[in-house]
Amino acid sequence: MPNLKLNYDTSGVSDKEIMKYKDKVTKIHKKIHEKAEDEKDFLGWLELPTNYDKKEFERIKKAATRIKKTSDVFVIIGIGGSYLGARAVIEALTNTFFNSVSRRIRKAPQIIYAGNNINPNYIHDILDFIQDKDISINVISKSGTTTEPAIAFRIFRELLETKYKPEEVRKRIYVTTDAHHGALKNLADTEGYETFVIPDNVGGRYSVLTAVGLLPIAVAGIDIDKLMDGARAAQEKYSDSNLKYNECYKYAVIRNILYKYYKNTEILVNYEPKLHYFSEWWKQLFGESEGKELKGIFPAGVDFTTDLHSMGQYIQEGRRNLFETVINIENSKNDIKIKADEDNIDGLNFLAGKTMDYINKKAMEGTIEAHVSGDVPNIVLNMEKLDAENMGSIIYFFEKACAVSGMILDVDPFNQPGVEAYKNNMFRLLGKPGYDK
Ligand code: PA5
């Protein structure tokens, strides 16, 4: 069973300070748990690991098997919460060179992400890449009207229609959207595409454990039962209303305490490049949930040791408004021993017999020590290993911590009113009817 462990010894925050939030956190706990099943509140994700549509879950697995059989490439069309979670899990748990390794190693179609920008070169290059390949598409949009995925879907649907007969096109398009409303739902019903549902009470960035994430993740060959098992274990583990025994709530409190000490930028740190997109998912989760009403911690991400040679200088000696949260994967799946070299021209023989994971861990320990001594508090989240169960757990951990943290900050962690500003201007500039003022 997955077992995340929070270590805040290097955060500079004491248990005494944390426990001052006890009553506040108990109130928030009660509030969110009482409303978890309410259709009007965006709290459906809270009990999702135990309370999900089992029939749809089986349908997702069947669709994934079909897609794997019939497709060389699987195109995932979505933006923000409608793709980052899937990409985070897929990249964490598959070969770093997933699309380049042979099908025998990959055991799944190649995976391409589209509809997450409006750049013509990006689409052009995808079209080059998928030329002459059999493709299936999963278009994911809760509103069904988001411009970026809608444009991409038009293009890829047209491609499919030129490539396959109508009956075959129908079998290659999978739609994940609202149960009842929206342009995408209407189109799917009219055309007879297989659809999956984003529950009303689950917002985009909290939706990775719904069909939004589960179908792409299953197509990539990842065991979604294990992912849900891990999330379920976390749901149980972090259900204690008592702050003293709930590390998820402690993390939410510690970051709010640091924020009060003017530490208003949090950097999520990993020493595993496969977690790059997990940081992207985490950035969106916290950024969109907390950054409002002129408040909120700015979420950033770095991949170490790579970024120690780019961002390391700033973190060590730049403005002192930073703190870091380090994800430490305790046991690496693979390891490589450094051999002794007779000539030792590179002077590396002091590492002979040691493994790369050992060296990586020493780099982590040394960096934490350096950054803490440079007044950058560090929180460490220890994860036993990188597998589906642990990914399910860490996703749940951060989702719940994010909601509670936002409520401590006294903002609504489930809305994103600020995202409309750019859309309104863009639509006005593009002459969309109704946006002429
Ligand atoms: O978290 C959110 O709500 C957003 O990031 C959305 O997921 C994103 O804007 C995409 O929206 P939609 O799924 O409606 O296309």
The main pleated sheet reads as: 5 strands, mixed
Question: Which distinct ligands sit in these coordinates?
Answer: 5-phosphoarabinonic acid
Hey, roughly how much beta strand do the residues contain?
5-15%
The low-pLDDT segments are none
**What is the arithmetic mean of pLDDT?**
97
Give the fraction of residues assigned to helices.
40-55%
Strand arrangement, largest sheet? 1-10-9-7-8
Radius of gyration: 23 Å
Mind explaining what this structure looks like?
This protein is of the alpha/beta class. The chain has helices at 15-19, 22-34, 54-70, 84-93, 103-106, 120-130, 147-163, 166-172, 183-191, 211-219, 224-237, 247-260, 276-290, 312-317, 356-373, 388-408, 420-430; strands at 5-7, 73-77, 110-114, 135-140, 173-177, 194-197, 265-270, 298-303, 322-331, 378-385. The strands form two sheets. A five-stranded mixed β-sheet has the order 1-10-9-7-8, with helices on both faces. Strands 3-2-4-5-6 form a five-stranded parallel β-sheet, with helices on both faces. The radius of gyration is 23 Å and the shape is globular. 43% of the residues are buried. The mean pLDDT is 97. Bound molecules: 5-phosphoarabinonic acid. 5-phosphoarabinonic acid binds next to loops.
Q: What is the topological layout?
A:
Blueprint: E1 5-7, H1 15-19, H2 22-34, H3 54-70, E2 73-77, H4 84-93, H5 103-106, E3 110-114, H6 120-130, E4 135-140, H7 147-163, H8 166-172, E5 173-177, H9 183-191, E6 194-197, H10 211-219, H11 224-237, H12 247-260, E7 265-270, H13 276-290, E8 298-303, H14 312-317, E9 322-331, H15 356-373, E10 378-385, H16 388-408, H17 420-430
Helix pairs in contact: 3-10, 4-10, 4-13, 11-16, 12-16, 13-16
The chain binds 5-phosphoarabinonic acid (PA5).
